């Protein structure tokens, strides 16, 4: 890699800029393709994770034992490194996007279960009792009492899950479906092509921030009362 | 399930553990990289956190840093440092991981020192303690639980992330998984994954015990703490340990 003093290799001489507009322009379709995969994987993982986490959190609220077990298990799953997670799923689903989706769903699931459970536990017991006394059924109580009161915590969980899922998706390069991670890893393997690596990394961070801002906007729209109180 | 059976065979072969670049060598490398990275981050982040907290400035910057750091993929960080003039390898990996470990320690130190009751600080000053004595003998013990939380978060994440370094030419246990993918050897892939996952879980456990041992105050056994933690749910902290 390194040349002796006074002698430079062609490799070192070749320009390798950190960012190159022409790279982005020439490879626009590829970048957008990987971006699409990245978004699909993230949205899929968070949506499936939320769909599984909500019933689990509702169950977990019913008993301390169950909620303790859920939280302990989620801490354990969250500690498993992403590389190991994808490697565990790999023998079942092979080199496919499904492998990445399952791994990402597991992570978003444990983040969401935690936040959903906390949100539901933060609903005051006397409020729920008052609702029951007023004749609210289980479904109506959930939609009109639990959900609005727990919404800020739910949304915080969704934001954290989304942002960390966007970052984690890159590890999918292990099975060839890492979304924008393919650019990062591809650039490394293409003789350390910096422009490609930086493009992938920056796109990843921007995607995460845009997703976070979008979800914050949704939260603002869904909780008009929070704005009224603050102003 | 063939992969899992092969993994057991791989893990059960003593030669795989003791040969050069075997599991033990890679484990040592993994732990050395992680330890150096965490220590470097600790040495830089704790004084900065204390300084920022006592000056009362920079809270916005700390919050932004802790939020943005979660959005930066670790793979991107590792790859970016691998293509700098440092060159790929363990040195680039260690620097990248230190950068990665920095925000959680900084944020938790900052929050811990900011959270010290001003009355306690005033009482200490009134007793004639110097600024340095207040920091060392009053604020530090009070902030220690949060500093340890930051250290634990950072250390567990770094141990977990070191596995990824193998993708970009670094060392550590990730090499086993990476090699397994290269050779289409399911057993080796699973074996590496088991080792990495076990190491991450063990380091979490070790640091929980360490932080409870280091925290002042009576009767804080790790088990009691664990029970307490599981009984009442807490929101999932961000990478920096502060809920968004």
TrEMBL record, chain A:
Family matches, as PROSITE patterns: ABC_TM1
CDD domains associated with the record: TM_PBP2
Domain ABC transmembrane type-1: 35-215
Keyword terms of this UniProt record: Membrane, Transmembrane, Transmembrane helix, Transport
Alphabetical list of Gene3D superfamilies matching this protein: MetI-like (1.10.3720.10)
GO annotation (BP), single: transmembrane transport
UniProt topology in membrane: Multi-pass membrane protein
InterPro entries: ABC_transp_perm/SBD, MetI-like, MetI-like_sf
Annotated compartments: Cell membrane; Membrane
SUPFAM superfamilies xrefs: MetI-like
GO CC terms: plasma membrane
Major subcellular location class: membrane
Transmembrane regions: 38-58, 65-89, 95-113, 160-185, 197-218
Family: Belongs to the binding-protein-dependent transport system permease family.
Name the UniProt record assigns to this protein: Osmoprotectant transport system permease protein
Originating species: Blastococcus mobilis
UniProtKB/TrEMBL annotation, chain B:
Family annotation (Pfam families): BPD_transp_1
Intracellular or extracellular location(s): Cell membrane; Membrane
GO CC aspect terms: plasma membrane
Signal sequence annotation: none
Keyword Ribosomal protein: no
Single Gene Ontology BP annotation: glycine betaine transport
Key word Zinc-finger present: no
Protein's name in the database: Osmoprotectant transport system permease protein
